[in-house]
Amino acid sequence: EAKVFYDFIINANSIILKNINRYIQKNDLSCLVQLRDYQEKKNLEKEFILGIFKDYPKLFFSERSDPLNSYKSILKSDITISNHSQLSFEAMYLEKKSLIAPLNLTKMISFFPSSINSDKQGWKWIIEDDTYESFETILDDLRKEPIDKYLSDTKKARDYIISLNSDFGKNSIREKLIC
Q1: pLDDT given for residue 82 in this prediction
Q2: Residues 16, 53: contact at Cβ < 8 Å?
Q3: Number of helices (H) and strands (E), helices first, in the chain?
Q4: String of DSSP letters for 100-146
Q5: pLDDT value at position 55?
Q6: Burial class (CB in 10 A: 0-12, 13-18, 19+), 65
């Protein structure tokens, strides 16, 4: 079961990275990748990512040499994008734009309570399919969204994710893991 989940995550990450790669090259943007692992698997992770981005000159890496590096990376970035990481939630806490790209992972993990019909209703900035067109559209919209409007429109969902409580009701992320 763990191998099936691991393979699923590798596939999802590959799709997200390919979409990011295509988008940043098309728009001539830089990309800062926060590596997840410390020493042990760091080089494998970096090689995996470089295999997708090749020699793109505006690709940068931040290692997890200290526990605050992920926060520093968030603060340096205009938008944080993650698949199944707390990084997007941490960006929300730091009042930075956050795009969650769980793709099909939403079939296994519920990010919002059942009173919300879909995760998209709970968090506007989520990508639940793997097409580049969807990725490009939502990322274009998020980039154009003024930060004050973004913070105002996402307050309820950010409160829910950050404090486990809000008008949405009790947070179910930890309660509804189906894998």
Answers
A1: 83
A2: no
A3: 7, 4
A4: E--GGGGGTB-SS-TTSSSHHHH-SSB--S--HHHHHHHHHHHHHS-
A5: 92
A6: exposed
Alpha-carbon gap, residue 173 to 13, rounded angstroms: 20
* Backbone phi, psi, residue 20, to 5°: -65, -45
The whole-number pLDDT of residue 130 equals 83
Q: 42-53 and 2-27 are packed helices; what angle lies between their axes, rounded to 10 degrees?
A: 50
Q: Which residues of the chain have pLDDT under 50?
A: 170-179
Query: What are the tokens at 163?
Result: 């404090």
* Nearest-angstrom CA–CA distance, 74 and 151: 16
Q: What pLDDT score does 171 carry?
A: 44
Tokens for 39? 């020493």
Tell me the sheet residues that pair with 33. Answer: 61
Helix (H) or strand (E) holding 8: helix 2-27
User: d(Cα 100, Cα 102) in Å, to the nearest integer?
Assistant: 6
Which 8-state DSSP code applies to residue 109? Answer: B
Q: Is 160 exposed, middle or buried (0-12, 13-18, 19+ CB in 10 A)?
A: buried
**Helix axes of 132-144 and 2-27: crossing angle, nearest 10 degrees:** 60
